[in-house]
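[job 4471] stage=fold_predict status=RUNNING
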Amino acid sequence: MGGKNSGGAADGSDELHQLIRERLDKAEKIRAAGANPYANDFKPELTLPMVLTYVDSCVKLDGRWRFAQRIIQPGLVSAARRSETAR
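[job 4471] inference complete, writing structure tokens
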């Protein structure tokens, strides 16, 4: 995943990591009880709209442009942004 990401609350990554950890812990408890966590009727309590930002570096080789590097930066869509796109 590369990139320079502060991991602070501004980009929502702390909340995302916490939510993923909670889901993994829940699945582990279900598995420890002898059940298949993926066979349950799982209904998420919330939906997390995500956005990916691609930071590409390109170079020109033999007269053609090529990708030299791609960094993918995941993030959550803010509540303000969600209300803008819902209109």
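[job 4471] summary: The radius of gyration is 19 Å.
[job 4471] exit 0
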